[in-house]
Amino acid sequence: MADTRKLEFLKTILPGRILAESKREDEELVQVELTTPEHLDGFMSTIHRLVMVTRNKSSGEEKTSNLMVKVMKGDDSFRESCLSPVQFRNEIFIYTKVVPCFTQLLESSRCSVKGDKWCPRVVFGVAGKVPEYSDCSETILVMENIALEGFKAGPRNDLDEEHLVLMARNIAQFHACTYAMKITKDPRLEELVKGIIPFDFVSDGNVLNSYALFFKMGLDRLFEYFDKNPKLLDSERFKNDLSTLRSRYGEAPIHLMQKLLHQDEFSVILHGDYNRNNVLFKYENDKPVDIRMFDFQENRYGTPAIDLIFFMCMSMPTGLRERFWYPLLEQYHDSLMSTLQDILKCDANDPRLKPYSYDNFKKHLQHYGMYGGMIAVHFLPWMICPEEECAQLAFHFANDMYSPEMKHWLNIAGGDAVDIRLTEVFRHLSVQGYLDIVHED
């Protein structure tokens, strides 16, 4: 009955509200089609495809709008356990406040970067009570379906250099807007940062239990693998880093994650979940030439390592990771600096840019880069495992994430391929000094 009520709202009431929000009062609805493709389902959201055919009341000309409708999954208990209301409200804030502000900044400075090319255009967003839809507090986000423009998902997990460079240079442009506003002391930045509801792992002594559970189970699996294969700890540094990580944070790695949310001069408004599964690519002759990002649910104000080292740990296979790690960081930093110079209309020697130099940037990442490894230890099994195992993970995540079945599938998903990959990721982070933070007080 509840699903019928929701679908009825999406099909009969929402289209009219979209027209009103878009100031399209001179159009009338001719046809509405609502479908729910299973392959678009998210971990915490349901994605519907909405096709609206409208007719201009004066000319009779018809127009077709192809849209995606994103709504929250689950009951109140599930949503609260994941802080879904906070995440979805923040996502709407990014689309409706942050991106428009950054876009205006770029346009007013005559910057060559176009903010309206970062993500799909949003045509409607609401957060709060929607009585016609449900009795709960809801968020509903409607955006254009850019699949019709040729954008599509890239490889499931592992990316080549061309995909990685597109991702790095794209997010650098987004981050550059925060730094430009800091440098010019733009008062709008403070309002934007205040508008993001804090999404902490630990707050006032209270732990975000769902995240604490998954980080703990991910590390437990990794430590168990090392216990069975101690020779993999093949250097004193690696052995010491993992031993300290286990002794200090093994029981509650959520506290390490909170430590990595510390804000400093490098803090930016983040995407927060910038990974292969939250971007779409456009191809020409089988080569990626453009990118769009979406799903800003976990956005924060914090270290750029959250956006950068996350996808680097997830999507750089062994060999490429070791060879292309620093060239990719250079690509990010080059895009960051060139965008800043374009916004500020200055050259590379401008003293205002010195705090964000490549050397300072690398030092910053050395302190915060462990964030990417901790996300990988939880999320890599989902991305590498066979689709049947991923379906089991998704099922138990939605039904009872604390169940023995959930723990079972997290322990075995992806098998040796996951365990070997995580070993290689953590070894690489240790070599780069990214695990030094576990030794700090």
UniProtKB/TrEMBL annotation:
| SUPFAM superfamilies on file | Protein kinase-like (PK-like)
Q: Which PANTHER family match?
A: LD42035P (PTHR11012:SF4), PROTEIN KINASE-LIKE DOMAIN-CONTAINING (PTHR11012)
Superkingdom of source: Eukaryota
**InterPro entries from the entry?**
CHK_kinase-like, EcKL, Kinase-like_dom_sf
Q: Pfam families this protein is in?
A: EcKL
Q: Which residues form the CHK kinase-like domain?
A: 141-342
Coiled-coil ranges per UniProt: none
State what protein this is by name. Answer: CHK kinase-like domain-containing protein
Q: Where are the transmembrane segments?
A: none
Q: What taxonomic classification does the UniProt entry list for its organism? A: Eukaryota, Metazoa, Ecdysozoa, Arthropoda, Hexapoda
